[in-house]
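dumping the sequnces here before i forget
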Amino acid sequence: MKTRELINVLAADRAPAAARPARAVAIAVALGAVISASLLLAILGLRHDMAGAAHSLRFLVKGATVLILAACAIGLVVRLAHPDAKAGRLPWALAMVPLILALAVLVELLVTPASRWGANLFGVHWSACLVLIPLFAIPPLAGLLYALKQAAPRDAGLAGAVAGLAAGGIAASVYVLHCPDDSPLFLAAWYTLAVGFVALAGYVLGRRWLRW
Amino acid sequence: MQSTEEEWAKMMRAAISGDALAYKHFLEAVTPALRALAQSNLARCGAGNSEVEDVVQETLLAIHLKRHTWDPERPIRPWILAIARHKFIDMLRRKGRRAEDVIEDFDALPDTGQAPDSLDRHELNRMLRKLNERQRDIVRSLAVEGASIRETARRLDMKEATLRVSLHRALAALAALYRKDGR
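..and the predicted 3d for all of it:
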């Protein structure tokens, strides 16, 4: 078949083009977050001291950190969905997350006696955190990978990993509503590990599935 | 080159708002640039001209299937180049060659004149043979200049809506076949 014949065929395909990446990602995030939050409310429920926690600085730092992570990673997924992507300042914004974490850990170590560090690090439910965050990340990760599959990311593995980071951030933001452990030590250890695992899963799935 | 880019963007914007003819003109307009790019890139990799049309065709298919990833607010040339580059590197990798000196831009490319398009011994034909019979009939029949969906649907005894869906699936399947080829 000659090239001009191929062009005739392509021009005949009037099937509506897929949704623009920003829109597809927005839908994936909204659906994923709603499904995960519903799961959390159905299985676990809100933390019992939610009203009080909302006033604690530790809780606010935890919530802000995971929300910043989710927001920056989602923005980066949209960028990476375009073949002519330029990352812009988003990676720098994303780099704020470990910086905030490190600062929060430092302050925590300064204001709490060393005898409390172990208890704060392991909290009440460190193993639940490791299981539940990846679990709640499944709906947003599936949605984001689907959105990226329709799009054209230059680097399949990188796009998958950032989608994993975003899904992990969303899942962590959801899990914050239940998790009773607010210490930055807990956040830096277990949340990081859980989100890192989701990012790794995103990388592996992305490499397999996002090539075009 | 600047004016060309503006024209491409204009045609593509018209295409997005539903102008099918503008879309066809867009594809026809970018093809010579893609061809020149493919020739330079293949030459740099020490490959002959025989694969030029294969590269061009695979790139056109990718541009078509990923056209919603162009942001009309942004220049179109970097977008086209990014897709061309991605597909070229992918093709090299598939054939077990290394991608070293891939040209980044259309600038300063020689005008290649007439295309070696008359040969018609392209990879695309091999991919087409792997489609199912119905999809192949649809693609072959729409390849003819001036063929319309309606007339093709009548000839193949299909509903127009069904034919549109089959055509789109056939194109997606072709892209997947290119991707799997050689792996």
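Chain A touches chain B at residues 1-15, 17-21, 81-84, 150-152, 154, 211-212 (CB under 8 Å).
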